[in-house]
Each structure stands twice: as C-alpha cells, then as structure tokens.
Design brief:
Helix content: 25-40%
CATH superfamily of the largest domain: Acetylglutamate kinase-like
Radius of gyration: 25 Å
Bound molecules: aspartic acid
Structural class: alpha/beta
Number of strands: 16
Shape: globular
Number of domains: 2
Length: about 450
C-alpha cells in the first residue's frame, strides 16, 4: 500500500503543527511520500511565508534605499523557520540556504524562485524531522519553455526517481523549466504536486491534509454548522468547485483522476475524522439526495426575444458572437421557444452593456431585449438526484415556502446538477431552504 500525503500551510505553520504531522505520518508505514506546503498562518492575522517571500523579493528588486526593509523581511522569514527547527530540536541550520537565497534575490532571479523557497525550506526541515530523503522538486517536476506543466516528462523522471526511493519529501508548488529556471504553479499549487506524485508512484491513495475535515454540504458562512460530505465523485466536485466551494486546487484532480486514485481530504487538527473521499464513481448510496449546494452572486442576465427565433439558422451563434467580440465569458444560457437568456458576470458586463446591446440589435434584430442585474446562481449537485423522483419538486416547494422567487432553472442532462437563478438578496434564504429540505428534513 502506498499513500502520498500532502500537508497544507496551516498544518506546517509551527513546530507544534509539525509534531502533529509527524505523528500522522509515523502512524502508517504506507505514508511514504510527503509533499509539504510553506508555513502558513499560525493565527488568523498572521502572514503566510509565501506572501512574505513575494513581498521580500519585491523589495529586493527595488533600489538600495529599501535594503534595510529587505534585510528585516528576510530575517523575519528566517526566524519563522528557525523557530520550527528549534521547536523540533533538530540540529540542522539553514544559514547557508539563506546566504544562497540572498545572493539569488540580489541577482533578481525571479518571483517564482522567491516564492518557491517557502516549500523548499520546509521540505528540508520535514525530511530531517522524519528521516526521509529530500528531493528538490526542481529536479523532478518539469515545465516546458512556455512555462506549461510537462506531464509526460515529469512522470517519466519522477516515477524513475521514486522507484528507487522508499521514503521521500518532495516540496510542493514548484518545478523547473528546461533552462533550469524555477517555475511555480498558481497559488495553492502544492495540491497539484501531491497529485502528480501520487500518479507517478501509482499510489493507492492521495491524502490531502488541511485544517478542515473535508468538504461541507454548504458554505458555513451561509448555513449554520453544515454537515460534511463523506464521499464525492470527481464530477460532483468539479460542479461544486466551479460554483464556489474551495478546499482543493482545481488542477489537482486531473493527474489522479486519470489513474483512478482516490483523494482523501483530512484534518491535521482532527486526524480521527474520516474526512471526504473523492472518487471516480461509487456504488455507495449517498447519505442525502444532494451532495452539496453552493452558488455565486453578482450576475447579470440579458434576455433576447424574437418571434420564430428557433427556426432562424445560426441565431444563437450570432448572439454569442457579440459576447465573444466584447471578450465577455458566458456563465449560463437557458432558452425558451422565442427567447434566450445569457448569464454573465455583472462586473465584466457593466461597462460594455451598451456595446453588447447594440451588437445584438445589429446581429439578429430582436423584437425585445431585457437586462436584469444583481442575480445569483445556485448549484444543487448530487449523483443521488438522478435516482430520486421529485427532487426538483422539493427544491421549488422549499423555495416557495421561503418566499424566494425563482428567476431561472437549468438542469444539466446528466441530472447531476440543477442551477437556479435567484435575486442576490434571496441567496442565503434559498441555500438554507434547499439545505433544510434535503439534509434536515429526512423523508
Ligand atoms: N505556498 C503556496 C501558496 O501559498 C502554495 C501552497 O500552499 O500550496 O499558495
């Protein structure tokens, strides 16, 4: 059994947190490959080391007059690591590493290099603490000349390297380009590294340790104390993440998904919780008809009406072309017999609205055009909805009882998600009504 274990920044923010992580890793021999993030926040108003590094590098590339501030910031970063080393009673020193970092910063080596040092240094400490081998991600995670992740090359190098390594720490978040230059993934990218490593070693499980016990059915800022999701499929997760649920980096799904490796989201501060298991598919019956309910606010809608529009070849294409010409992305597009409605992000649309209206008039000569703003889209997602009759009926009667007016309904043909448009100010009431009817009212 092989497990790849990734620990997020808050799990590694201090020596105390490192000790919890050490305990978790030592508990199971299968936890052989470890991906650390950089130290995160110790308290809500603390600063992540990655952000400290970005800021410090920002000073390094300015004139000499910022030198003192630069030195202070670099020292503050070093202090964070030194405190961890001391708290773990390790005999290593990062003095030489910091000398190299200072030299490289003064050569203006690049922002990605600067940010990557957070994971790199944490990896050195983690390897020393566990007695695992340290592998610099720059040697095994590869990007091409354009800076795109090179999955084929990486898999080749990484699987060969790890085949001869029983236990290793590979820092998350970065790799290197063909010229050796360090390149990072986007923020939160250690999740992606973990997934790439899991694929390379054909892991049985990719454990992603963070500070929550998995995904929740709804956002706790909207629903009071929502229940956790036990098992979720990759497709459901995509739907929920797209509409706002965050825990895992979006790109972290792809490498493991191709290999059928499950991801288990776990809580470092509560390791006995089972967390959420993310799988390709499952026969296990979901606990509730819905897996999750989430949404986003601040959309605008443009309704285009024209008699007999459905018999006009290319009508939709011409309307959509207007949005493309104005570089506006489209979120949803429900249609009727003589109408089509386009949902867009309000902030993207607002300043271009008159151009879009004129464009649509020119393109299709509609009978009528109507704009609405301050709309929210809510996604109700669940593989269980397919097998259950009356799901939409329950949703809409719950919304009616909560006095929420439904502006739009769109059910994907997979029957795995229903998108509902409501007014922004009904957003919380709508999510609570849906959560209530499926989770609190078990019938
Ligand atoms: N340390 C990086 C960040 O703060 C990457 C990560 O934590 O995954 O975004």
């Amino acid at each position: 059994m092989i497990k790849v274990v990734k620990f997020g920044g808050s799990s590694l923010a201090s020596a105390e947190q490192f000790k919890k992580v050490g305990k978790i890793i030592r508990k199971e021999e299968s936890r052989r490959y470890v991906i650390p993030s950089a130290p995160g926040k110790r308290t809500p108003d603390d600063t992540k080391v990655t952000d400290m590094l970005y800021s410090c590098y920002g000073l390094a590339i300015l004139d000499d007059e910022y030198e003192e501030e630069f030195e202070n910031q670099l020292m503050a970063i070093k202090t964070r690591y030194d405190e961890i080393i001391k708290g773990l009673e390790l005999s290593i020193s990062l003095d030489d590493e910091f000398k190299t970092i200072r030299t490289n910063f003064s050569k203006k080596i690049g922002r990605d290099y600067a940010a990557s040092r957070g994971e790199y240094l944490n990896g050195i400490i983690m390897a020393a603490y566990l007695g695992y081998e340290f592998i610099d991600a720059a040697d095994v995670i590869k990007f091409d000349e354009e800076g795109n992740f090179d999955g084929v090359k990486t898999n080749e190098i990484l699987s060969a390297r790890l085949a001869e390594t029983k236990q290793a720490v590979i820092p998350g978040f970065y790799g290197s380009m063909p010229d050796g230059k360090v390149k990072t993934f986007s923020r939160g990218g250690s999740d992606v590294t973990g997934s790439i490593v899991a694929k390379a070693v054909h892991a049985d499980m990719y454990e992603n340790w963070t500070d929550v016990s998995g995904f929740l059915i709804a956002d706790p800022r909207v629903v009071n104390n929502p229940k956790a999701i036990d098992v979720i499929t990759y497709r459901e997760l995509r739907e929920l993440s797209y509409m706002g649920a965050t825990v895992l980096h979006e790109d972290a799904i792809f490498p493991v998904r191709k290999e059928g490796i499950p991801i288990n989201i776990r809580n470092t501060n509560s390791p006995e919780d089972k967390g959420t298991l993310i799988v390709e598919d499952t026969c296990r019956k979901p606990r509730f008809v819905i897996t999750g309910v989430t949404g986003k606010k601040d959309f605008a809608s443009i309704t285009v009406e024209k008699a007999m529009m459905n018999s006009e070849v290319g009508f939709c294409k011409k309307v959509l072309q207007v949005f493309e010409d104005n570089a506006i992305s489209i979120e949803h597009m429900p249609s009727g017999i003589d109408t089509m409605t386009i949902f867009v992000h309000q902030d993207e649309f607002e300043e271009k609205e008159q151009k879009v209206i004129a464009g649509i008039h020119r393109a299709v000569e509609p009978d009528f055009l109507e704009l609405e703003s301050d709309l929210a889209l809510i996604a109700v997602v669940g593989r269980g909805m397919r097998a259950t009759r009356g799901t939409s009926g329950r949703i809409f009667s719950a919304l009616a009882h909560a006095n929420v007016n439904v502006k739009m309904i769109d059910q994907g043909s997979s029957e795995m998600n229903i998108i509902i448009g409501v007014r922004n100010h009904d957003f919380n009431a709508a999510i609570n009504a849906i959560y209530d009817i499926f989770v609190n009212t078990m019938i």
